[in-house]
Amino acid sequence: MRSVSVARWLACAALAVSAPLWARGSEDLPLPWNTPADPAACTDQDSALWVEYANGQACIRYFSAVPLAHAPVVIVMFHGDRNIEMHRAPAAIAGNTLRAKDRQAAALSRRAGVPVVIVARPGTYGSSGNHGQRRQPAEFQALDAALDQLRQRYGIGRFVLLGHSGGATVVAALLTLGRNDVQCAVMTSGAFALLERAQMIRRSKGLPSREGRDTNGLLHPYDPLEHVAGIAQVADRRLFVVGNRDDQVAPFVLQAQFYQALRDAGLQAQLIEAPAIAPAFHQLRNDIGLKTAAQCAQP
Fold it and tell me: What does the pLDDT read at residue 293?
């Protein structure tokens, strides 16, 4: 299935990098947040994808610090929710430049031993859209189309998807859209059973119930748990649900529920309990997400 081995590709990529890929002229300007889709602002062939999908159009930004052409496997990482950041001016958001995101991707690639691409969710880090409308179908449709274009642009063989928290929900949603080019998926501290999760969190904080609304206050979120039947049956593909039993942000019982739904659908899934940082127990220790994804990416 792959014409180039991971080790051989990395060796070639190392020779090909004569200058940092972030040297593009505007690398230190703040990336815009929560902006409308504009093809005129989506022209960087090294960091932007103009996509069209069933419910609209979007400019999706991505960040990588190694050549991607003909890579046999690429780890695609999605950040978790950025609730606080989206209410700040772009210049006040830490790491919100092309240079900073490319450097982050470079560090992740070195640690993983395979190329890592950070794909920005709609409304964040230069991607068009409204981050306040996350977990609606359009978010996942836009990112699904972006993966198609990313693979086509660079001739990428397979993806390993990695996401934390809301990013894990993105990974799960992309799986439910039927992708068959995903070699492995790692979902850490993911948000599933979205309406039940919202009720649990509100109850724990003594807040009134908001029946039918998720934590964003929105109706009809796209909940991967309700769409497991859409996940393609791919031979040898492994799915990892990783979390901590005391998670105060994404209840572990709901992560376990999603894992069980995967198993019930006949998918090769594994549930892993991992150490996490108190008091929320949401951020996992020991870089387990990236390490698991890196191991999955090996031939």
Answer: 98
